[in-house]
Amino acid sequence: MNALLNPIRRLGALSINAIWRLGFISRFFVAILLNSGQSLLRFQLTIREVYFAGVLSLIIIIVSGLFVGMVLGLQGYNTLARFGSADALGALVALSLLRELGPVLAALLFASRSGSAMTAEIGLMKATEQLEAMSVMAVNPIARVVAPRFWAGVISMPILAALFNVMGIFGGYLVGVEMIGLDAGTFWSQMQNNVDLHYDVINGLIKSLFFGMAVTLIAVFEGYDATPTAAGVSSATTRTVVTSALVILALDFVLTAFMF
Amino acid sequence: MKRSTIDLWVGLFVAIGIAAMTFLSLKVANLTPQSGSETYTLTADFDNIGGLKVKAPVKSSGVVVGRVTHIELDTKRYVARATLTLDKQYQFSRDTSAEILTAGLLGEQYIGLVQGGDPDNLASGDRISLTSSAMVLEQLIGKFMTSFAEKGSQDAPAKTE
Amino acid sequence: MSSDSFIELKNVSFAYGDRPILQDISLTIPRGKLVAIMGGSGSGKTTLLRLISGQVLAQKGQVLVDGKDVGRMSSRDLYQHRRRMGMLFQFGALFTDLSVFDNVAFPIREHTRLPESMIRDLVLMKLNAVGLRGTEALMPAELSGGMARRIALARAIALDPQIMLYDEPFTGLDPISLGTIALLIKKLNDALGTSAVMVTHDVHKSLEIVDHVYFVAGGKIAAEGTPDEVRHSSSPWVQQFVQGEADGPVHFAYPAGNSLAEAFGIKGETA
Ligand SMILES: Nc1ncnc2c1ncn2[C@@H]1O[C@H](COP(=O)(O)OP(=O)(O)OP(=O)(O)O)[C@@H](O)[C@H]1O
Ligand SMILES: [Mg+2]
């Protein structure tokens, strides 16, 4: 009987725990916003974090963007050619990247590259009493450690997504025009005729801004909330990547439904 | 506060971001006519607009000269009224005709303008009176079927009766 | 002793969860005096410091600092309290992403608007005081345990605090550094009038420099007195500590509730 009830009880405990954490993360978000003054006044703090979160992600974003664009070019060409509309390849590549793939994939990469690093760093600072030492020195760790990382993530994400898009379009161009031999003029003009600045480009960047907020919030929260042990930090890092991925995809659905 | 190499890298990072966004908005997206050069608007009434959508291109001889900016149903005469926003540099005569065309067999629909012979040009806010509606595939097939059936019923009686 | 108490614990009880750590403890630290707290490992000495710094709150009783109860301070008051307090953590707690220089400069940069040149002078002065000038470019990972604690000490005293809490300042130091650090702690007290609490295991060295000693055991103050009283005390608690004997009223083992034999399941022999 007990064994039968156990999974149900576990499920109940998990759901209560999830709601608890949701409340905690919301309060944490408000605390970050209230303590953001310093990250803006002493912008040097934020710049340092932009370096770690954004600049160090450049390579992975550039390489992944290029390959995703090239795959899109190949697959898109194969499909479009069947309907005799290979000319539309430029539009296909650009629209898929700008609306969905760019923001979503860049955010997933960002979560696993920078989000996990943020969680591990903050979690270790907690485990080695550094956050505690800071607050004993009358320095608020949320203002000094958490908020600059949060804003760095919010700043970096749209930049990385835009770069991912450009690299992807370039990859599609390489395959479509240089490799397959489509006409370069058609490629670009089809793209320009079908891509709208506000509708496609700006909305895509707004998406990535939301993703940046979600991923960094999860990352800094998991680090701050981590059990201060080696195992605790490692499981917090895993949770950051998993939760971020789920939240990015769910948020993408909601935003897409709103925007397009 | 001294300048450090981190500042240089972050500066470069932001510059790359701005360059990427500029590229996306100038080279990848089309700047719609209303955003850049000066424009004027015309309206055109159609019995049926088929699948025409807002933002569909308006072309003349295949050249994009503007976009459909608004579509509404005129509840007095029950016709669809499309508002076209055209680039100022393209002027059309008063007897210009507008038709709804399809790019390819399954492509998107757009409005084609054919220049008339009238020496006076359409002014902003004018209505294009010569229009022909979209070809709706179901209606075409329907017409084809009825004419086919009529033809069949003319031949058939001889045999059955 | 009770002439001018700066820090005062009145009947303080504290428990982590439902495990009581401190029970009904009262002690005073007079203004400008250096007080040592000694006791077995796990007896709650660090917890005592955490109560004074406001990191944990007493469940019963009051922790008064300059007449104000730490447990009831508003966040602004707590900020003010910590602003004039320095704390040396038991494990250093240096910021691993900052260099030695930036670690020591941290409290100065956070709380003052001094020009960079003056910060530099201050930091070098503090590093010199702990005997580690020349290490400012190193990262904490490149320091030995004893060096890290001395840097942490330099950071704790960077702003010349009025209250100093030292959690085992002498562990991991060679005899010479130990002597220097003890002298430094004494000098800080004399020159700046700092009121200080020092948790320590080094009975002999600390008896040379402190004004008063409290012994904590079983969640209570087991004994107290001036260094002279301690040296000549007849209390078995104190004697065991001062002599460092394994057997006596202070138990080396954590109170487990059953014997080792029982824990191994060997019942026959004990019965
Ligand atoms: N965060 C915590 N949660 C639960 N229990 C704790 C926590 N910190 C300490 N304890 C418990 O409180 C007791 C006292 O701990 P404390 O750190 O004050 O000991 P201590 O006297 O400083 O020991 P040591 O000399 O080894 O540093 C210990 O038994 C410890 O198990
Ligand atoms: Mg301790």
Protein described:
The complex is a heterotrimer of chains A (260), B (161) and C (271). Chain A has one domain (35-259). Chain A has helices spanning 2-34, 37-41, 43-53, 58-82, 89-127, 130-136, 141-180, 184-194, 197-225, 230-259. Chain A is built from 10 helices and no strands. Chain A has 260 residues and is mainly α. Chain B has 2 domains: 1-31; 42-141, no CATH class. Chain B is built from 2 helices and 8 strands. Chain B has an 8-stranded mixed beta sheet, with no helix packed on it. The radius of gyration of chain B is 25 Å and the shape is elongated. The model of chain B has no long low-confidence stretch (mean pLDDT 82). Chain C is built from 11 helices and 10 strands. In chain C, the strands form 2 sheets. Chain C has a 6-stranded mixed beta sheet, sandwiched between helices. The mean pLDDT of chain C is 86. The structure holds adenosine-5'-triphosphate and magnesium ion. The site of adenosine-5'-triphosphate (ATP) has 11 residues of chain C, from helix 1. Magnesium ion binds next to helix 1 of chain C.
